[in-house]
Structure formats: C-alpha cells, structure tokens
Structures
1.
Amino acid sequence: MVKITFAGCGDAFGSGGRFNTCILVAAPDICFAIDFGASSLIALNALGISHNKIDVILLTHLHGDHCGGVSSLLLDAMLGARRETPLTIAGPKGTVAHLPKVQEALYPGSSAMTPKFDVEIIDMDVMKPHEIKGLKITTYPAIHTEATNPTSMRVEVAGKVIAYTGDSAWTQHMPELARGADLLISECYFFKKSVPFHMNYPDLIEHRDELQAKRIVLTHLGPEMLRHRYEIPEQCADDGLVIEL
Ligand SMILES: [Zn+2]
Ligand SMILES: [Zn+2]
C-alpha cells in the first residue's frame, strides 16, 4: 500500500491558513516527500510526523513555498532530531547550487556545519527517467516563473504512479504526465480567472478529457478558488488529507 499525506497543500501566501506544499508518500520500502516548502517542518510537526523517516525529497521547482523548508529540515536533522540515515534531495536543474545558498541566507554561518549523515543533492534533467532509491521519476518542463526551473513530476513507487503538475500553466506534457496515473495531483489556483503560470479551474475544465488519471485531487488553491471549492465535483486537498493507493 502507498499512503499519501498532504502535509501542506496551500499556496505561497498561506491562503486559508494552509501550509506550503509538502506531499508525503509512504510506501513499503521508502518514504519520500514531493516538495518541501518554507512551512513544511511546522506542517509535519503538526501531524506528529518525524522528518527523520523521509528518505528522499523531490522538488518540482525552486520557489520558497516548494523548497524553502529544506534548510530547516537539514539543520534540525543535525541538531535536534539527530538523524542517522542518508537523505537524498533531487530537484530541477540548479538545485545543487541553489539549496546551499538558501541555507546560508536563512541561517548565516550554518554552512560550517557538517552533517553526520550522508546528504546527496541531485539535479534532474527533464524528459528523462531517473531512478533514485528505487523511485522511478520523470520530470517534464512546466510553464511557471522561468528562473525557478519549473517541472511537473511523475513518480512510480511500489507499482503505483503519482503524477503532480507542480506549479504550472497547462502544458503539452500534461496528458502524458497524467496517463494511467493512480493519482494526479493538479494545482488549481484560481476559479474563474485564468492567471498566467498556473493551472486554474477553467484550464482544468477545458482539458479535463485529456487527463486520463484514475483519480484527481486539486491543490495549491488560492483565496478565490477556496471560496468556490464546494461548487465543483473534483476533490480538493486539505492539509492532513490522507489517500491510500
Ligand atoms: Zn507554489
Ligand atoms: Zn511556484
């Protein structure tokens, strides 16, 4: 069984009191997180989940609400949580260079600390299969703030496929991303308005037939979308939502 916990499903600005994106996936042999935003450590603590159990963190892009919590996790893993097991962090192009800079900006002087556990940071090319600790990952180019090297992501674990649009406007790759997935997590930022660089409800309706996933959950809801969420048939995530595949 694969258990997916939406530790955080909010946007960048805490709309609706929601935490930044962090989707935790627990499979028989591995536990991994898809995205780890600035508030994700708080979100995990609120759920009583120890971050020490996370083997791999996958990042869709370099915005703070998707990767800004990694520094806090690493510091706590060294100081408070006393992690002993290896941690792999894989993200888009630029992740290897970006994460240490973020850490030193947020916690000046912290780069002098050396973890007692192995940390591996990996840049993943788009449109190529990657195998990391048994996870089969393919990332696709997304349409979002270009400097964040945005991607959509498809992950196969324990015979199940989880697909996530990341933050992105509709792309030609979305049908392939979603095809046959056991779960498609699609961002849905606005309800009526179609804003650039994001999937919005009008985009989802326009392309609904092209998204051939077994199940769809909407995430990253902004204030306007939150007000209308009960008017639509699609399932919307809440912080703490658990889905078992
Ligand atoms: Zn975001
Ligand atoms: Zn973003």
2.
Amino acid sequence: MTSGLLEGRRALVTGAAQGIGLAVARAFAAEGASVVLVDREGETLAAAAAGLERDAPGRIAHRVLDVTDEAGTDAAFAAAADRFGPVDVAVANAGVLVLKPVVDMGLAEWRRAIDVNLTGAFLTSRAFARQAIGAGVTDGRLILTSSLFGVRGGRDNGAYSASKFGMIGLAQSMAAELGPAGILVNCVCPGQVESAMLDSLFESRAIDRGTTAAALKSIFVERIPVGRLGPTAEIADAYVYLASRLGRYVTGQSIVVDGGWQVG
Ligand SMILES: NC(=O)c1ccc[n+]([C@@H]2O[C@H](COP(=O)([O-])OP(=O)(O)OC[C@H]3O[C@@H](n4cnc5c(N)ncnc54)[C@H](O)[C@@H]3O)[C@@H](O)[C@H]2O)c1
C-alpha cells in the first residue's frame, strides 16, 4: 500500500536498471514522485523504465550514463531538470562488487571499486547539490547506497569496503555543508540483498570452495537473524523514509538495513 509520501517530488536514481536502484525507483514512483532512472546498461535500463512507466505514466524518464563520467553526470541532472523540473531527491546507488584479498589485488581492480563506488557517488552528489542550490531547492534529499561493509571491513573486502566507508565520510561531510541550504544527506547500508550482485558472488565463491551456490546461500541465510536475504523492495522502503517528510530531521546518518546480520 502506498500513501503519496513523495507526491510532487522529482527524483534521479543511479544504478537503476536493476536490483536495489530499480526497487528504489519503483517505490519512489509508487509514492507519487517523477523519477529519472540512470544506468550504464542502456538496454536493461530502457526495459526497466518502460516497466515503471506503465504504472506511472508521464512520470518516468531514463538516461544512459556511466557515473564516472563527470560532464555526463552534470548533463544528466540538467536533462532531468528540463524534463520534470529541478531534481530534489537524488540517490547515488550505482556500484560494483570487487572482492579479493588485498595482497592479491591489482591496482586496476582497486581503482575500479573506488572510481565507480566512491568517485561516482561524489560526482552524482556534487552535480545534485550544485543543481539543487542553483535552482533554489529548499527541501532536498541526497541518499547514498553504502553497505554493511561501509561500517565494518571483512575478508576479501579491502577495496569494496574502503569505497563504502568513503561514501559515509562523503555523506557526513555533505550533510554538514548542505544542512543550511535545506538539503539532507544520508546513507543506506544494505546487508545481504536478493540481487544479481549477490547471485554472482555465490556462483563464483561456490566454484572456489567446491560447493554449490545454493549451499553457500543457505550458510549466508543462517547468519541473518530474521532468516532471509533482504528483498530489494524492503531495502527501498528505507529510501522512501529518508526521501519523505518522515525523514525531515535526519541527516548525516547511515541506516543499516540488514535483517540483523550485523548483530547476529
Ligand atoms: N546486493 C547486495 O547485497 C548489496 C549489499 C550492500 C550494498 N549494495 C550496494 O547497492 C548498490 C546496488 O547494488 P545491487 O545489489 O542492486 O547490484 P546490481 O549489480 O544488481 O545493480 C547495480 C547497478 O549499477 C549499475 N552500474 C554499475 N556500474 C555503473 C556505472 N559505472 N555507471 C552507471 N551504472 C553502473 C549496473 O549496471 C547495475 O544496473 C551498489 O552500490 C552495491 O554496492 C548491494
């Protein structure tokens, strides 16, 4: 059930072709927002946008973008503003999973994690802030998708975790800078989410460990107190909260949405 919590809002979500980003775009549209979906995978993105358009006619647009492209990111916000009016909710969600022990990691792999996850989030955040301030937005929301690995490290997580910790530092700093302008900045830190990203992790780890992806998945699930992986729609609810009037006094925070995995 939806309650029009985002009626009249104009959102842009990166990494929105699938997974968490698509679920966030869907939830925002269901709550009444206009949404621009952004991703580097054009075909998947166009199909995702067409799916949302059926339920929210006239309120969905999409744009192909690699979030490491500085000029392209600025242009995406300008195009979104032309289409629906100034963006007042931005979600920096595009990300890649790079898993390897630090001693085995090449510089190119390290840079890929930092470039997409951290520099991409910086470029999205900066483009949003400049556009929102320039357009006189006085109730803006910026939400970054960090991770549970943004608040703790873990085996094989050196690059990924460093990029996700960095996003929290970026968000806290921007919260301090942008609060006076009426822009709130927070992170969502998902735990283990039902997603293509996690499926590919199970597949590759299963081969390394001589087991099956299904067996590995059930070991993961046993460690989660609520006994299941996170459906993307349930992760997306945290973004709706932060983007809506319900989150109007929350800034500089990182909300872990993990079914208790951190404490389990
Ligand atoms: N899946 C999980 O369990 C999990 C847990 C914690 C955090 N996260 C984070 O959530 C976010 C979304 O992950 P997901 O699980 O939906 O993964 P996903 O792989 O299903 O989706 C990621 C999307 O980002 C897009 N993308 C990747 N690099 C891009 C780039 N350079 N420019 C533009 N788009 C790009 C991909 O095309 C894809 O559509 C990521 O930041 C990820 O690190 C995921």
